[in-house]
Amino acid sequence: MSRNVVLKCKNTSLVTIRPAEEDDAAGVLKLMHELCAENPNILVTKDELPLTEGEERKIIARIECSHTNWLFIIAMVNSEIAGFLDLRRSRLERCAHTAELGLGIAKPYRGLGIGKAMINYSLDWAGKNSISKVKLGVIASNTGAHSLYERLGFAECGRHRKEVKIDGAFEDLILMEKELISYDS
Ligand SMILES: CC(C)(COP(=O)(O)OP(=O)(O)OC[C@H]1O[C@@H](n2cnc3c(N)ncnc32)[C@H](O)[C@@H]1OP(=O)(O)O)[C@@H](O)C(=O)NCCC(=O)NCCS
User: Which of 15, 67, 88, 148 has the most crowded Cβ, counting Cβ within 10 A?
Assistant: First the structure.
């Protein structure tokens, strides 16, 4: 069941965190393009994003149908999408207790506690859906994201060396994970 969480961020704006709906497709795509254009810290490049709003709508519709396996939430501030978070259960039966997390916050809204609130929302969802481990990969130079994950209890569990190549330079991908108490295990 979808859940809206409203909270005050550090600059006292109200932020609503909720599952994305098909009508959010254009805004989500816009934010993803902004992040790709601005930020070398994410793995996806703009050419790998959905091309059209219609394609993004279809993805969101698929997510809505697989609501116990895939969480895709957005943070809204003054009717603008300030961030998104994607948490997807492994499709492998033997790893179905695990899920992989990705997130991005729009530049003007960073440092306000929105990333932290979105991760906490997603960990709550994970616990309610029999997921007992959340994992992610963070590019080694992305110290801000690394600090955020560490602060929320994620621990490094390894690294893929020279996994990412950005403008000709190799970067390690740090692997992090957090074990959860699944509410129904
Ligand atoms: C990394 C990112 C998701 C952080 O989101 P955010 O909403 O700005 O983070 P929050 O305001 O919730 O920060 C919560 C805590 O994380 C830590 N943190 C967040 N950003 C940090 C930074 N740049 N440097 C150091 N610590 C940071 C702090 O401990 C912070 O707590 P504090 O403000 O009380 O000290 C955001 O900067 C972002 O989207 N960056 C671009 C895309 C990206 O890197 N995505 C992650 C890919 S793995």
Answer: 15
Within a domain: 184: no
* Residue of the CA atom closest to atom 48 of ligand 1: 138
Ligand 1 atom with minimal separation from the 145 CA:
1
pTM value surpassing 0.85? yes
DSSP one-letter code for 130:
T
152 within some domain: yes
* Residue range(s) defining the domain that contains residue 87: 5-179
Predicted confidence at residue 163, as pLDDT, reads 98
Q: Check which CATH number belongs to the domain holding 108 and give it.
A: 3.40.630.30
Residue having the nearest C-alpha atom to atom 34 of ligand 1: 113
Residue nearest to atom 37 of ligand 1 (CA): 110
What's the structural domain count of the chain? 1
Counting as low any pLDDT under 50, the low residues of the chain are: none
